[in-house]
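Escalation from tier 1.

The customer reports that the assembly of two entities below gives different structure tokens on two consecutive runs. Tier 1 could not reproduce it. I'm attaching the input and our single run for tier 2 to review.
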Amino acid sequence: MQALYAQLLVGLINGSFYALLSLGLAVIFGMLNIINFAHGALYMMGAFVAYFLLNNDYLSIGYWPALIIAPIVVGIFGMILERTMLQWLTGLDHLYGLLLTFGMALIIQGVFQNYFGSSGLPYAIPDQLKGGMNLGFMFLPIYRGWVVVFSLVVCLATWFLIEKTQLGAYLRAATENPTLVRAFGINVPRMITLTYGLGVGLAALAGVLSAPINQVRPLMGADLIIVVFAVVVIGGMGSIMGSIITGFALGVIEGLTKYFYPEASNTVVFVLMVLVLLVKPTGLTGRAA
Amino acid sequence: MTALTDDTLPVTARAMRDEMIVFVFMALALAAVPFTGIYPFFVMQALCFALLACAFNLLIGYGGLLSFGHAMFLGTAGYCSAHALKVWALPPELGILAGVAAAFVLSIVTGYISIRRQGIYFSMITLALSQLLYFIYLQAPFTHGEDGIQGIPQGHLFGIFDLSKPTVLYYVVLVGFLAGFLLIYRIINSPFGEVLKSIRENEQRAISLGYRTDQYKLLAFILSGTLAGFAGSLKVFVAQNASLTDVHWSMSGEVVLMTLVGGLGTIFGPVAGAFVIIAMQQYLASYGQWVTVIQGAIFVICVLTFRRGVVGEIAHYFRRSL
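Tier 1 run:
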């Protein structure tokens, strides 16, 4: 049973990353009509920023500040990308956004691979979160529990921001009809830039969270983003809460598969995608796109 | 989907004549390669990728469907041909047939699943499906995992043509490429191709005119996947191995890049693009990962400033469709 709980926890952690990444993809898609292929690369950048902050002799900034600084740095980088490149795609076919961001992902990943090779760099767990707790039925490493809880909080905060606040209302309105929202005097292009920054910042945050667990590697986001695409296809991008729930649920299912049938653990999400497409082609949240 | 098609002139007799002239020049130039001293292996490799890119272009350029998983057909056909040639010791013609048949079956299954969603979702689904196959091939015993299938015998095609001779192999690959290219050209200019273009332009209207667009899209997907498989089978004879790189998502990305550089929705664009990208990889091989960076940069530049591609720009300048 111990092993089952351990795999469930791993599943929940992966689910946290799926949720944070698919949430960012959904927010960006809503405003920019772009599937951000660079999401995985920016997730990786988040982890690398945390690594630089810690290992730079002058800075040696630890995990806690990195949790805030890395998403901001990567978010700003993302906003620069949006201002200099993505904004020129307005009005073009969606697929050009996919191609452009794919190119950006290749550039970012290639540059990091040149300087750091393909092997993983270690990132230590912060002192406060070291060790574990005995829950009676299983041993819980504190850091892993922290990742799950913190991701959940961030996801729910994002949901609250978009669904329940004034700013979120503007955002949702601009998603529905940008021209009309502009007519009300709201600066929609700036909002689009900020949205991209927010989505990308969520990816970077996931990167920082995963750095102590998965090590820091230039290609850490490359394969992950494809799984997240499958998650997005299953859940649909119409609903924020849908993305969060689908992300966590698929992580758990993947964890269970690791316990019961490990050979299928890296394919199970894709198989589920196929099944969902066969039964309900519009995805679980039901909105066609 | 209009962005792709601003420059596609209606197919007139004059356009067909132009295209035939270019085709004859291309065929003659390629046929002359063994006499020029150019390294035939390079050209053969480029021809396989050119055919793959043409098959991919059939789907995106004429059906408006961006597949981000075309490596799965290349790799599947490659593995099946390689297995048939090496383990079952079949002659080359049956080896190719085995690979193409495998790609055919795979394209029926994956096409049936992926055309259920449109646009950007279609791309994500094809990418996810090819990643699924990648993991299956990583674990399946017959692919030999990371090692791949190596040392594949080339044999005698139809018992006559000795494929271990580079010149013979070159002409066999060339004939295969030209046959595939002409088939795609024929498909594009058939009534089926016209319906396909109308679906790309406005699917709702095509449906309202009574066309079962899903069936057209599925058939286009099957044709494209099977031809991509043919390219994969030919490639086995050139490279004499079949490995995981052929199924990896980066290979799918390269096919997209070749077609984008040459010109989406142009007839000769994918061929030009394949030669450009393969040549670039050849010359920059010593720069390691910078090749990836350069490829990414080409993607970005093409999308931002050069969406017609090389052939598309030329065609636009001369006001012709090529």
